Amino acid sequence: MTTYPSDGLGWQRLDRRMLVVHPAVDLAKLLPVLLVIAITGGSSDDRWRLGGGIALAVAVLAFGISRWFTTSYRIGTDRVELRTGLLRRHHRSVHRDRIRTADLTANPAHRLFGLAVVRVGTGRREGGDDAELTLDAVRRVEAERLRAVLLGEAPADAAAPVPELARLRWTWVRFAPLTFSAIAVVGVVWLGLFRLAEEFSLRAPVTETLREGAGRAPVWLGAVALLATAVFGAAVVFVEGWWGYRLTRADDGGLVLRRGLLTRRTLSLEGRRLRGVELDEPLLVRLGRGARPLALTTGLRADGQGEHVGAVGPAMPRRRAHQVAAGVLGVGEEEGTRAPLVRHPRAAVVRRLTRGVGPVLVVCAVLLVRPEAPADAVVVPILLGASVLLAVDRIRSLGHALTGTHLVSRHGAWVRRTVVLRRGGVIGWRLTQSLTQRRAGLVTLHAVTAAGRGRYEVLDVGADRALELVEDITPGLLAPFVIDGRGAGRLVRR
Amino acid sequence: MTTPEPGASRLRAPAHRVSPRARSWWALRSAITSVGLLIPQVAVAVVLPTYTSLMILTGVATVVVGVAHLLVVPCWRYALHRWEITDDAVHTLSGWLRLEWRIAPISRVQTVDTDRGPLQRAFGLSSVTVTTASASGALTIDGLDADAAVELADRLTRVTETLGGDAT
Questions:
Q1: Which domain range does residue A466 map to?
Q2: Among A16, A48, A211, A327, which residue's beta carbon has the most beta carbons within 10 A?
Q3: Chain A, 429-468: which have a CB under 8 Å from a chain B CB?
């Protein structure tokens, strides 16, 4: 076990300014409740309600203030400790060996007072929140110092130039409306508006006005309104999330990601935790010639942020995304996401067609047989055309490569993903073969890794080639099992 | 469909089968699932007389499929399920329609667990689960003889203890 220099400061409290911030933020959160208390209710006993409201507010204030007095932390030689809780004391300690991430975030309240939250992560997936230790909050300078101490970096030298991998270009905002999250945000906003209307019992008049208006307003106006909010909402989310985006390389070969307008986030990814990169091209973004770079690292929590775990940039022009990916990997583009890919066997191509078009053919047949189904002449050609196009796109996407340092795999049409995984990052394998794959002599090879989604697949590769890849990346692992099987498409001889 | 060229290399199955009693366990599990599917159908048939004939139809289908599954799948599984531990790695082969071969290098193993559900205990069986640092790197050997499972877990734990590192 390694021992680290203690910072010699012993038990410390959070920044004194949290005496104001905590109660203020808590009160702000309570505001809707207080408002409801103030507005609703009958005329029966107003004093009671007033008293209740004030008591609640005072309790929240007292709790907020007590948090400062009851919270303390210590950076020891081998562990970081945090004590919290007024009635139920909680003591959490994290081994410094186990610390994988130390990230800073600051919401607007924190920023107003020059504070930042330090989130120390151990990267253990089981354990959930318990594996994390949060200091909410300390002074910005102290936060930067803690991050440096915990990650074992040299204290940041402001004068020294840092190699920069990427920086925000405002023209990238054009990709924002093309991402799925933009559509989701618009949905949430509309839902929120309706909820609010319902809450204040405005619903009846609103629906009436809508009904009246619907008679006159053409349909396209509604569509335009939706589209406009989608574009606007996406732009707002983009600006909030990626304002001041900057990706730099740290001393240890890791990455430092800074972004955010209202909530500043500083995310550092340790160099030895990096296992590779992924380039995501959702269909719409791809049509706009864009792509989104992601880093595959261990120790990032998989929950909460869904697909965006490890995003090292917003959707950006494909050319730039390739550059960022190459920069993160530290290799040339031609050995990274742009590596020339090996095509898969013809059976894999046939499989893309049968799997893509087959179900649609069945649906179309059903539609044509049922005479009462409307608009066959329009729906059937569209369905068929789209499925064929998608299948062709899947065929074009499919491929893999093995470079000197990385395994590259690409597939998908709705979201085309190009995964570049370091050879050393592979910590296991899965080979699967379905009945139809067995007939076609194909295998799906999954490279298991500690980073990202946990495993990345090379879809429908020849059984031979799969064994070759395993042998190349992890020599000798499968050797005791390999035999010469004549005319065999089966993975396993029984 | 193309036929792969002759001389293609492939794999021999891992050496060890699971316990023969696993067949009875799988059969019982299959029977319980079928009964679990039947109960709501019977309930509907009794409570809503309009649907009785339909429920009898689906019920018969459920029984036929259930019995076929019970007779065929456990033996099929038993024929396919294999495991082996080499000097370098733990290998498991499982599935029945879709074959799955999982490999976890010994140097990457983080934990070794044995667990015995109530059904497995009734047959004197146990499973061994080997986890690695990956969220989806775990592999499980189901239906081992209980004593053999303990022995296997002990052996694996001893081997992995001698190796350092955090296995990521």
A1: 346-481
A2: A327
A3: 429-435, 438-441, 448-450, 453-455, 462-464, 467
Pick the residue from chain B with its C-alpha nearest to A440.
B1
Q: Would you call A463 and B12 a contact, using CB atoms and an 8 Å cutoff? A: no
End-of-domain residue from the set A90, A123, A150: A150
pTM of the model: 0.78
Last residue of a domain, one of A150, A183, A217: A150
CATH value at residue A130: 2.30.29
Q: Do A455 and B3 touch (CB under 8 A)?
A: no
Is residue B149 classed as helix, strand or coil in its secondary structure?
A: helix
Task: Give per-residue pLDDT as tens, A339-364.
Answer: 999 999 999 999 999 998 999 899 88
What pLDDT does A201 receive?
Answer: 59
Which residues span the domain enclosing B103? Answer: 81-161
Tell me if A347 and B104 make a contact (CB, 8 A cut-off).
no
**Domain stops at, among B60, B79, B98:** B79
Interface test with A, best of B9, B93, B163 (most A CBs within 10 A): B9
Residue range A112-154, pLDDT digits in tens: 888 999 888 776 554 444 567 888 888 988 888 888 888 776 5
Kindly report the average pLDDT of chain B as a whole number.
86
Over residues B90-119, the mean pLDDT reads 88
